Amino acid sequence: MVTRLAPEARTLIATAEQEARSTRSPYVEAEHLLLAMSSAPVTDAGQVLASVGLTRDAVEHALDQEFAASLAAAGVSVAGDGPAPAAGVGSARRLRLGASFKAALERSVVAASGSRQIRPTHLLLGVLGAQVGTVPRALQLAGVDQAELATLTRESLAG
Amino acid sequence: MAALEIDPTAGPADGLAAVVALRRLADLMEDAEVEHAMRAGWGWPQVAEALGVTRQAVHKKHAPRLIAAGVDLRRR
């Protein structure tokens, strides 16, 4: 039973928390992990994402699009960039982990079974295992085939 | 039960994602509007009443951030 996080994976999770904080989310969610991976092109996970065009900017844009599209589904549109960004970074205490993050982490553990450590690529597989939610929607809006991306990720593990 | 084929960008998925997005929008608006009110000299009791929550709740949620941002929160 592996539950040991590789140092790079640990760093990604810490970065994901910062991403959540800077987008003023009360929870760390799977999309924050995806943002963190896309900002770390040196990791295997970052390279796989970049290979399908998912750079940091592309992921950010896709998430913005997803937010706007989901609001639009409720007949709501936000003028300009939405509410003025509020000041302050909030308290320094740790953010809680959201359900989508926990689910991704659980899938990562499964993906890493048989390996010594949970690596960034395993985390990416965990994120890509989601069937619904913000990440699948953002990927589809970005024109990325999620299943194909998961296959590429698995191949990068094998290679 | 056979696995249901779900399109993440249609039907119920759209409606549920709208709920998530509206919550996020409400959170972002709350941050911005509470700050707006406090900068305009409102006190916690007024902000709390306007939001329909307790003073303790609004203070706990927003005071640390506003203090960190240097918003002048005189005794009020």
Helical region count of chain B?
3
Rounded average pLDDT of chain B: 90
Largest sheet of chain B: none
Our measurement of the CA-to-CA distance between the termini of chain A, rounded to an integer number of angstroms, reads 23 Å
Poorly predicted ranges of chain A:
none
The percentage helix of chain A is 55-70%
- The overall average pLDDT of chain A, rounded, is 92
CATH overall fold name of chain A: Double Clp-N motif
Indicate the overall shape of chain B: elongated
Spans of at least 5 consecutive residues with low confidence of chain B: none
Describe the structure.
- The complex is a heterodimer of chains A (159) and B (76).
- In chain A, 59% of the residues lie in helices and 3% in strands.
- Chain A is an all-alpha fold.
- A two-stranded parallel ribbon of chain A has the order 1-2.
- Chain A is globular, with a radius of gyration of 16 Å.
- With 76 residues, chain B is mostly helical.
- Chain B has a domain at 42-76.
- Helix content of chain B is 66%, strand content 0%.
- Chain B is built from three helices and no strands.
- In chain B, helix 2 packs across helix 3.
- In chain B, 17% of the residues are buried.
- Chain A binds chain B through residues 24-26, 66-67, 69-71, 73-74, 76, 78, 82-91, 131-134, 136-137, 140-141, and chain B through 6, 8-9, 13-22, 24-25, 27-29, 31-36, 64-71.
Write the topology of this structure.
The complex is a heterodimer of chains A (159) and B (76).
Chain A: H1 7-22, E1 27-28, H2 30-38, H3 44-51, H4 56-73, E2 96-97, H5 99-111, H6 120-128, H7 134-141, H8 146-158
Parallel strand pairs in A: 1-2
Chain B: H1 12-39, H2 44-51, H3 55-68
Helix pairs in contact in B: 2-3
